[in-house]
């Protein structure tokens, strides 16, 4: 469905004298591959692939979790497994994923800075009191790097509880090499996300659930309704009803306006930093609970895995 839809959009754009020169999608998007092969605009116009920064960020977490699971109880050079207390925990994986995402966003449209930012997070975590490696981290009293911040303020800093063991960091270095690759990061320079697309998809599925079969006319009606509501709110339906000769009661009109008010308030609430912090806090509590239930003799065991 995605492939057919992508091809249809690009082909129809020719009839309207529009050229889509950038394609925002997942890393494994089959739609983009088919569009490139189809050459909807011939050889003179190249369609460039962009990556959703949120999806790229999640690759860090996925790769680290896969590595931890694959190594399991395998002993590293320090005769300990990769997981367990003071090792690569689920909470650490979550933090490294967030640090990677911030490195991309802070890089803006500067590819070299973006690559530097990613490696800064790696060497920041491998540092210890004997061998601090914060040369790539930002300097000054406002730095996110605790070591450089303390140095600028002439304060002491301890790496204890802030770093990961050298043997663990060696194991994950290849993941950083892959995810710091300029060929990947240059697709993030536009700092685009698919949040709007995913939000619209949810609007469509609320009208026509994807796990329920419907006929084509029902599907079209659901999509039209979703587009109308998503772009202009519930009250936009009033124009449709008027053109159909349907007169709504005052209570019905008031209900539509109330739906729009609720929608706006919900959006504002979701955007509040307080709400975001609450979501992060809930996730941290969940990860902490998983770590408490983890069997130290079996790194592959975790709450909810079976």
Question: Could you characterize what this model shows?
Answer:
The structure is a single chain. Strand 1, helix 2 and strand 2 form a beta-alpha-beta unit. Helix 3 (53-71) runs antiparallel to helix 7 (166-179) and helix 4 packs antiparallel against helix 5. Among the domains are: 1-51; 53-192, no CATH class. A two-stranded parallel ribbon has the order 1-2. Helix content is 59%, strand content 3%. The protein has 13 helices and 2 strands. It is an all-alpha fold and 306 residues long. Residues 295-306 have low confidence and may be disordered.
Please outline the helices and strands.
Elements: H1 2-15, E1 22-25, H2 30-38, E2 48-51, H3 53-71, H4 90-107, H5 111-126, H6 146-152, H7 166-179, H8 182-185, H9 195-207, H10 216-232, H11 237-243, H12 250-271, H13 273-293
Parallel strand pairs: 1-2
Describe the structure in brief:
The chain has helices at 2-15, 30-38, 53-71, 90-107, 111-126, 146-152, 166-179, 182-185, 195-207, 216-232, 237-243, 250-271, 273-293; strands spanning 22-25, 48-51. With 306 residues, it is an all-alpha fold. Among the domains are: 1-51; 53-192, no CATH class.
